[in-house]
Design brief:
It is a single chain. By secondary structure, the protein is an alpha/beta fold. The protein has two domains: 5-143, Cobalamin-binding domain (Rossmann fold, 3-Layer(aba) Sandwich), CATH 3.40.50; 159-344 and 381-443, TIM Barrel, CATH 3.20.20.70. The chain is built from 18 helices and 14 strands. The two termini are 27 Å apart. The model has no long low-confidence stretch (mean pLDDT 94). Bound molecules: cobalamin and iron/sulfur cluster. Iron/sulfur cluster binds at residues 169, 171-173, 176, 178-179, 211-212, 245, 269.
C-alpha cells in the first residue's frame, strides 16, 4: 500500500504582463496540467494553483509540477526557487521546457521535454523509488494514449472548457512552435473518445484548442463532419470557438455541421494581406491560395452564421510604418469580425528564432529575464525598416485605432449584418474588447491620460453614439447571451 503523497500543479503567470488574467473571460484552464493529473495514480492528492486567479504561495507538497509558456518562464523559475529552498522537489514540462530544455534544467530539479503521456508515469515511479533523473524526453504520444483531461482539479471559475481533438500541424510555419512541439504528423483522436470527453465538460463555452481544426485533405474534412455531427447527435449544444487555417471554408458541409454544433467564432491564421509579408513569415498555405482567396472564404463562413477572428501579425522583416498601417486598414475593410493583432516574436525553438539569433537581430535577448516580453504584445526585435522602439510605438497607435470603443461597436454591427447571428455579434464585441484590454493593459489606469477598465478614456466625455449603442448591447445581451448563461447557472462545477 502506497502512503499518500501531495502533488502541487502550478500554472505561473507573468507578473509584468497581466493582460490575459485581468478578467475571467480570458483566464483559461491549463489542459496540460489536467492531463498530468489524469496520468497520476490515486495515492497522490492533487492541488492546482493557477496564478490567473491566485498568486502562488508556498505550501506543503512532496512534488511541485510547473508548466509554462515562454513569457511565463521567469515566473516559473521564481516559484521553483521558492520550493527548492524549502526542499520541495520541482519538475517542469510544457512548451518552454520543451523548446529550450538546456536553459530550464538549470532552474528545476527535473525537466520533462515534449509530450508527457509516456514520460510522466516513468518519472513518477522513478521519483517514488528515489532514482529520478534530471531530464526525460516524452517525444510524440501515440494518439490512443492521450487521456481525458482530469477536470475536477479546475477549482476556479473558468468560463471555457478547453479540449484538444488532434495534435500536430503539417504546416511548420517559421514563427510558430506547434510543429516543433507536436510534430508534423496530424494525429487525430478517435471521434467517439473526444465526444465522451466533451460530455464531461460543464462550463458555458467550449474552446477546441486544436491549432489546425480541419486538416487540409478529404479525410480531415470527413472527420470534422463526424465530430460536429456527433456533437449534434449527442446533444452537446454549447457555443464553441476553434482555431483553423483558411481551408476551414473549403467544404460547405463542414461549415454547416460546425455551425449546427455551436461554432460561433473561428480563429483563422490569416497573418498578413500582402504576399511579401506572407513570404517573410513563410506562411505557405496562404501564399499558395493567394490573398485574394480570403474574401470568398470569409463570405462562406459568414453565410453559416460563424464570425471570424483574424489572427494577424505585425512586424515582419519587410514591414515599415506604411505596411503596418496598410495591414490595419485591410483588417478594417476585410470582413473579419474580430482581430488578434500580434507583434512578430521569435519564440525559442522556431526557425525564426535561430535565424534572427544567428543574424544578431534579437534586441531583447537578456535571457531568461527577457522572456517576460515574449507574449506577442511587446516588440522584442525591430524590422528591416523600423527599430524595436518604432515598431512598439506604431503598434500602440494602431491598437488604439482598432480597439477603441467606437470602432469595436461598428465592427459588431457589421457582424450582425454579415452573420445574422446575435450571439456571434456579442461574442465578437467581447473578443475585440478583451484584445484591446490585453494589448493596452499598460494604459489601464484612472489618471487623466488613461483608459478605464471599460476601455474608455478616463477624461473623455461619452459620445451620443456610445450612449445609444449601450442600449443596443444591453438588448443583445438580454435576448441572446444571457439566455445561454442562464442555462449554465448552477451547473459550473466548482469542486
Ligand atoms: C490553448 C492555447 C492558449 C490559451 C491558453 C490555454 C492555457 N491556459 O494554457 C490562450 C488562448 C490563453 C493562449 C494564449 C497565448 N498563447 Co497560446 N496556445 C494555446 C494552444 C493552441 C494549445 C495549448 C494546449 O492547451 N494544448 C493542449 C495541452 C494538452 O498540451 P500542452 O499544454 O502542450 O501539454 C502537454 C505537454 O506540453 C506537457 N506538459 C504541459 N505542461 C506540463 C507540466 C508538467 C509538469 C509536465 C511534466 C508536462 C507538461 O504535457 C502535456 C501532455 O502531453 C498552443 C498550441 C499548442 N499546440 O501547444 C498555443 C501556444 C502554447 N500559445 C502560444 C502563445 C505564444 C500564446 C500567447 C503568448 C499569444 C498571444 N499573445 O495570444 C498567449 C499567452 C497567454 C499567457 N497567459 O501568457 C505559443 C507558445 C510558445 C511559447 N514558446 O511560449 C503556442 C505553442 C502556439 C504557437 N503559435 O507557437 N494560448
Ligand atoms: S501557424 Fe498555424 S498553420 Fe502554421 S504551423 Fe502554427 S499551427 Fe500550423
Amino acid at each position: 500500500m502506497n502512503a499518500r503523497k501531495k502533488l502541487l500543479l502550478v500554472n505561473p503567470v507573468n507578473r509584468q504582463f497581466l493582460g490575459f488574467v485581468g478578467d475571467p473571460s480570458t483566464s483559461y484552464m491549463p489542459p496540460g496540467l489536467g492531463i498530468i493529473a489524469a496520468l497520476t495514480p490515486d495515492h497522490w492528492d492533487i492541488e492546482l494553483i493557477d496564478e490567473s486567479f491566485e498568486e502562488f504561495t508556498l505550501r506543503d507538497a512532496d512534488l511541485v509540477g510547473l508548466t509554462a509558456f515562454t513569457a511565463n518562464a521567469p515566473r516559473a523559475y521564481e516559484i521553483a526557487a521558492m520550493c527548492r529552498e524549502k526542499g520541495i522537489y520541482t519538475v517542469m514540462g510544457g512548451i518552454h521546457a520543451s523548446m529550450i530544455t538546456e536553459e530550464v534544467v538549470n532552474y528545476v530539479d527535473t525537466v520533462i521535454a515534449g509530450e508527457a503521456e509516456t514520460a510522466w508515469p516513468v518519472f513518477l515511479s522513478d521519483f517514488e523509488a528515489g532514482r529520478q533523473k534530471p531530464l526525460y524526453h516524452g517525444g510524440i504520444t501515440p494518439v490512443d494514449k492521450i487521456p481525458h483531461v482530469r477536470r475536477d482539479i479546475y477549482k476556479y471559475p473558468y468560463v471555457y472548457d478547453l479540449i484538444q481533438t488532434a495534435r500536430g500541424c503539417p504546416m511548420g510555419c517559421d514563427f510558430c512552435s506547434v510543429t516543433q512541439l507536436c510534430g508534423k504528423q496530424y494525429r487525430e483522436r478517435d471521434v467517439d473518445d473526444v465526444l465522451d470527453e466533451m460530455e464531461k465538460t460543464t462550463r458555458p463555452l467550449l474552446f477546441i484548442v486544436d491549432d489546425h481544426l480541419v486538416n487540409n485533405n478529404k479525410n480531415g474534412r470527413e472527420r470534422a463532419i463526424r465530430l460536429f455531427k456527433g456533437m449534434v447527435d449527442r446533444g452537446i449544444k454549447k457555443l464553441w470557438f476553434g482555431q483553423a487555417s483558411i481551408n476551414f471554408a473549403d467544404d460547405e458541409e463542414v461549415l454547416y455541421w460546425a455551425a449546427k454544433s455551436g461554432c460561433t467564432l473561428i480563429l483563422l491564421g490569416i497573418e498578413a494581406e500582402s504576399p511579401e509579408a506572407l513570404a517573410d513569415a513563410k506562411k505557405r498555405l496562404n501564399l499558395k491560395r493567394g490573398v485574394d482567396s480570403y474574401q470568398e472564404a470569409f463570405r462562406r463562413i459568414h453565410k453559416y452564421g460563424i464570425a471570424i477572428l483574424g489572427a494577424m501579425i505585425f512586424g515582419m522583416e519587410s514591414d515599415g510604418r506604411d505596411e503596418l498601417i496598410a495591414r490595419r486598414d485591410y483588417i478594417l475593410r476585410s470582413g473579419m469580425d474580430a482581430v488578434q493583432s500580434s507583434i512578430m516574436t521569435p519564440l525559442p525553438g522556431t526557425g525564426l528564432f535561430y535565424r534572427m539569433q544567428a543574424e544578431n537581430k534579437i534586441v531583447l535577448n537578456n535571457f531568461p529575464e527577457d522572456w517576460k516580453y515574449y507574449h506577442f504584445m511587446y516588440a522584442t526585435t525591430g524590422t528591416s525598416r523600423l527599430t524595436r522602439e518604432e515598431l512598439q510605438a506604431t503598434m500602440k497607435e494602431l491598437w488604439l485605432s482598432m480597439y477603441n470603443k467606437t470602432n469595436i461597436r461598428k465592427m459588431m454591427f457589421k457582424t450582425i449584418r454579415r452573420t445574422r447571428n446575435l450571439k456571434a455579434a456579442y461574442w465578437v464585441y467581447g473578443t475585440n474588447h478583451n484584445y484591446g484590454r490585453i494589448v493596452l493593459v499598460d494604459m489601464l489606469h484612472d489618471g487623466p491620460g488613461g483608459l478605464t477598465r471599460n476601455m474608455e478614456w478616463s477624461s473623455g466625455k461619452r459620445s451620443f453614439y456610445l450612449r445609444f449603442t449601450d442600449q443596443v448591447l444591453r438588448i443583445l445581451y438580454l435576448i441572446s447571451w444571457n439566455k445561454m448563461v442562464e442555462r449554465f447557472r448552477g451547473r459550473i462545477t466548482l469542486y
